[in-house]
Design a protein that fits this description.
By secondary structure, the protein is an all-alpha fold. The protein has helices at residues 2-11, 16-42, 49-61, 65-82, 89-108, 117-139, 147-158, 164-181, 188-207, 220-229. Helix 2 packs antiparallel against helix 6 (117-139) and helix 4 (65-82) packs antiparallel against helix 5 (89-108). The two termini are 25 Å apart.
């Protein structure tokens, strides 16, 4: 199974059918990713940095979390395009599906509230683990990274003297600050997400023997060419 996925990572998306299948995989993965995000917020000890911003916008403008998330994602996507970073089909799916998935789980509200710090931390770690595995299944579609990851890479190319970790912390801090000023929930969970998401994702990738560096994401222009011609 792992060797099959590795082949798909390197040689996939050569036909319109393959791209459509991978778009479905990406959409399902991102919907499940939204459940992980929902758990981190539902833990009630502060949201992740980008979710602090989304929730701050949601509360300030009286809109759904998903609508705020789409607005932020589209804004970042436009910045990615202006930076001339590679854009893939999955980036557009990411911009819409995750936020609306969170809205769905908020609506059905199937998870009981946590009544202790320990339970909240466990719920948040479960949410981050789900996000890690769904990030893996999303990335094997090879149709582009998320808008925020693309922005981070784009900024790192233009700020070569700054380590990418420092740039990442700067982005997360800015998102958190703006979200907090808008009334977004900041707390212990914000720190857990900011500093724990990366190591948890690395652990998840090791459990499935996945190297994200092997993924050759297909740019949007090539995907369109495949649809037009029927093959790469």
């Amino acid at each position: 199974m792992r060797s099959f996925l590795k082949r798909k990572e390197i040689h996939g998306n050569q036909t319109a059918g393959a791209i459509l299948l991978h778009m479905l995989i990406a959409a399902v993965s991102l919907f499940a990713n939204g459940f992980g995000v929902y758990l981190t917020m539902h833990a009630g000890i502060g949201a992740g940095p980008w979710d602090v911003l989304n929730l701050g916008l949601s509360g300030t403008f009286g809109i759904l979390y998903g609508t705020a998330s789409i607005a932020v994602s589209v804004t970042i996507l436009i910045i990615d395009i202006l930076l001339k970073e590679p854009i893939g089909i999955a980036m557009f799916i990411d911009s819409v599906v995750v936020g609306k998935s969170v809205d769905f789980f908020n609506h059905i509200d199937i998870i009981p509230e946590c009544h202790s710090l320990g339970a909240s931390v466990v719920m948040m770690l479960i949410g981050l683990t789900i996000m890690g595995y769904t990030q893996y299944t999303y990335m094997i579609a090879s149709l582009g990274c998320g808008p925020r990851d693309t922005l981070l890479v784009g900024l790192s190319k233009r700020m070569r003297k700054a380590p990418i970790g420092v740039i990442s912390i700067g982005l997360l801090s800015l998102a958190t600050l703006i979200g907090w000023l808008l009334g977004g929930p900041v707390g212990l969970g914000t720190l857990i997400c900011a500093f724990g998401a990366g190591p948890i994702m690395q652990f998840v990738f090791r459990t499935v023997n996945f190297d994200a560096a092997l993924v050759q994401h297909q740019p949007l222009s090539k995907s369109i060419k495949v649809f037009v011609n029927g093959h790469a």
